[in-house]
Structure formats: structure tokens, C-alpha cells
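Q: For a teaching session next week I want to show students how multiple molecules come together into a single three-dimensional assembly. I've collected the sequence lines for a complex. Could you give me the predicted C-alpha cells for the whole thing so I can convert them for display?
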Amino acid sequence: MIRKKAWFPVVYMFCLTAFFSTIVIGFTQVTGERVEANEKLSFEKAVLAALPGLYEKNLSRLELHKRFTESVSPPDNFSAAAYTLRQNGQIIAYALPVSGRGFWAPIKGVIGIKADKKTITGIAFYQQNETPGLGAEIAKAAFTEQFRGKTISTDGPPLNIKRPGAVLGDSDVHAVTGATQTSTRLEKIINDGLEEWLSRTTTQGNAK
Amino acid sequence: MTAKTSRSKSIITEGLWYNNPVFKQVLGICSTLAVTNLVLNTLVMCVALIFTLSLSSFTVSVLREFTPRNIRMMIETLIIAFYVIIVDVLLKAFWPEMSGNLGPYVGLIITNCIVMGRCEAYGNSNPPAKAFIDGFFNALGYTFILLIIATFREILGMGTFLGFAVPYFSGPNWDKWIIMVMPPGAFFMLAIVTWIFRSIQAVKEDKAK
Amino acid sequence: MNELSHAFVVFISAIFTQNILLSYFLGLCPFIGVSREVKTSFGLGLAVIFVMTSTCLLNWLAYEYVIEPLGLHFFRFILFIIIIAAFVQFVEMVIERFSPSLYQRLGVFLPLITVNCAILGASLFMVIRDYSFIVTFGYGLGSGIGWFLAIIAMAGIRQRLAIDRIPKGLQGPGITLIIAGLMALAFIGFTGVLSGN
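A: Of course. Below is the structure for the complete assembly, covering every listed component.
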């Protein structure tokens, strides 16, 4: 009997591994492009969502991509790291990508800012791995919608994430209930990103 | 024929009720309990589990005549991992948001004890068709318990069901039970569900006597 | 220095505020199954600390130097589990060879560990969270100790419960889960210990 041979388990294991691996590799090849496109698209979606009046919920993937390439210009010297939305060559709003360490994993997002560099037009996150149902709620509309129309404060930190139930000022939002750690880190990510960008763009503006 | 149908019927009731993976065997809760604070996440995880469990039990059973005993566990792990990877790839390609929400928990189905447990206890010594049915209904028995837990946790803790606001529970008169969204809520809900179902079973058994 | 302090923060929070068992539910099956006696729990817990720390580091190396360069992201599940299984097997052989007395105490628990989801879970979290080597060490060790603490505490409580009268439906897993819930609540009390960082 072939099965009694000492080498049989090794060969068997090898064949089986080869068989399953081939299928998996084939599978990833087929879906690989789509996975990559998904990653790019989720960034583009975040940029559109952060800018005013661009994002609609029911856009298809293709429409999303088209809208992004048509209306958003990539960062240039003047806007520092931010993408821009222009009308007749005039900047209407900036979309600033920010990232940093969340409680668990890196959080990446986009902040939309009006041309006056004071008003927030929106915020969106395209990568986070916070606890599902707790920290991960930062990516939901209930949290992000709060930012729309807030003002970047000039004294103290640009924006504050306050505990749920606290009285809110012009540049404050409520944190997600139960997600204290995520909120503290997120506040730092947003403020560090904003402060750095503001200092870069204003010094450039002065130089001009 | 009658003997055969009654037997496959008993596989069904075993998995769903008498030998339910959650409240009777208490196996394999780890990878899913963490996402039971939202019904949708739970549903996706459970569908992934149904897929993995039934197909890997089936595959183990198909290969059972050839697999050398001493490397049995390795082969089983390999087969389970194979199906889990397929689920993971599919989610990443076609539902990236969900893939992000579930994080590492999809991958953790590999070490979900119920999958390995059913492959070992049943798939290994039964024909493929029955192994498939056994796997499917065990996973289904698992699913319905976790959905009960998730439903209570989401409604009481967030006032929503599948993301939609539930009247009263989402209103201002209902003080949301934050504890339900947090980890202890999962333990308590699971304990309560186990308690209720085990008591029902005990009463039924007493009556049978 | 910054990396080190981050590693320390992760280490502490993996033990207390984000305990792998009590807030992530990983390793729940052996936790419920083996926590009847303090003595056995102690052995299993020690084995988990050791294996979790080592396999996290091994898997980190494998991820950094094999999976990442070759682009084999989808194979990480298989590679991780094989490394864990092989490592456990190896340790078992070494212990059996060199210290029969230790083998008597720990050996029986080692095979159980391969299917402990907490071990694979820690490795997967480490990859997703993009930890550096030193932080991974803190995370692996912290998670192991956290699991150890939880199972020891549980076993201590259960030993006392053994003679108590408990409703029939709650006996065994039911009451264990309720205690685990209370422990999770208690551990949440540690939240904020580290907010100074």
C-alpha cells in the first residue's frame, strides 16, 4: 500500500498545500486589482466627502472616481499638502489628508477647510482599525457630521473633542460615547495636522 | 429511506438545539463575540462561519480516506485556513468597508474551536454529504444564538437595529445602556442566553423522563 | 526612547484596559474549559505567556522579512498558524528532553495552545496595528500576562463556587460567563490610568 510508505505524509501535505495555494493565488490575482482600486477609491471618497457639495451617497464607483478627477486638483506649492477644489481657478476649499496613531492602529482621514482657512467643511476617515462599535464609530456620519461648519480656533487647539454631554463652543464636537482613548488620539491627529498645515501655508502666503 | 431521513433530521436538531455549539458545547465564541455589538457585523461574521464550517467539514470528509492520521490536524488547519482566506479576499474586494469593520476577526475564524471541533468530531469519520449538513446546521445553531445577543446589544446599547433607529429606544426617553456596547455586556448577554436555553432544555429533559 | 515608552504603554494596556480575553474575547474556550482549578490554570497561563510572546516576535520577523517583501499578504494566516504549531511542537520536544518535571507540569497544556485563538489573535492584531519589533514584544508579553491574570482570578473564584448552590441552567459555563462579565467591568476601571500619556 502506498499509504504505508514513510514519505507519503510529506508528499501528501505538499500536494495539498500546492493545490490550495494555486487556487488562492489565482483568486487574489483576479481580485487584486479590485482590492487596489478599492483602497484608492476610499481615499477619493473621503476627499469628496470632506469637501462641500461634492459627495452623494448613491454614486457608483465609476462616478465617484470621475467626480474626483474632474473637480479636485492635487496638492501644489500654494496649498502645501492639501488637495484643492477650484471654481474658475479660484480656490473654494482645501482637503487636507491627516494621519497618525489611533488607539490601536493608524487612523487616516481628510479634513475639508474653506478658502478662508477658518471654517471646516467636513471630515472623513478612510482608514482606521479602532474597536468595532466603539472607536470605529468615528467613521460614521453621526460623528463626522458634527464637524461641518465648525470654526478653527485661533487661541488654544484648533478643534476640541469634548466628552459626550458637554456644552459645545464654536470649535468643539462631542466624542463617541465610550471611546475615550480613540477620541484623545484623534484630537491630537486632527490638531497636529491642522496646525502644521496652517503654519506652512501662512508662512508661504507671507513670503509671497 | 425513513431511517436515513430521520438520521439527517437528527443531525439538524443536534446542531441547532440539543448540541448547540454556543450554549451546549460552549465552543468557538471567541472570534465572533467581539463584533456582536452590531447586528450587521454579526450577520456577516456568521455567514462567513457557515461557509467555512460546512465546506471545511465537507472537504475534511472527502479527504478522510487518504489523510495520514499523524498529520491530520495540520491538514485540517490548512483546509480551514484556505476557506477563511477566500472569505477574506472576497470581503476585501467586494465589501471593503465591512472588511475594515471586522478587522482581524475574519482571520480568527481559523482558530475558532467550533470549526476544528466539528471537523475532528464529525467530518473525520462521516461521509461528505452528512459532514456538510452537520457543519451547516452547527453553524446555523451558532448564528441564531449570536444574532439574539447582537439584537439585544444593539437595541439596548445604541437604540438601533441593523443601523436603523428603533422607535422609543433611540428617543430621548431611553437612556442608552452603554455597558451593552462594551465588552461586559457581551459576557452578560451570553450568560443570560446560556442560562435561559439550558433551563429550557433541562425542563424538557425532565418531562421526557 | 519614544518607541520604548510606546511599548510600555501598549504593555500595560494589553494587561489591564484592553485585556485580550476580557475585551477581545480571545482564548475564551480554554478559559471556560480549563479554569476549574488554580493549579492547572496556573500551568496553562504560564505556557500562554511564553508561547504568545515568542510567537508574536517570530511572526513579526516572518511578516517583515518574508510576507511583506514577497507580497504574500493573504498567506499570513497560514504562515502564522504553521509557525505557531511548529513552535509549540518544538518547545514540547525540548522540554520533554531536558526537564521531565517541567514537562509533567506544562507539557500537557502545550498542544491545547495551538488552537488558542488568543495566540493567533495577538499576531494578527500586531500586524494590523503596525507595531514595531519592540512594541510587539510589549504587546505579546502584556497580552500573555493579561490572559494569565484573568484565568488565575477566574480559577480562584470558581474553586470557591464549587460548593455553592447555583441554578441548574447557570452551572458551568453560565456562571463563568457572568463572573467574566464582572471581571471585564472591573478591568474597565483601569481605563484612564494611562491617559496621562
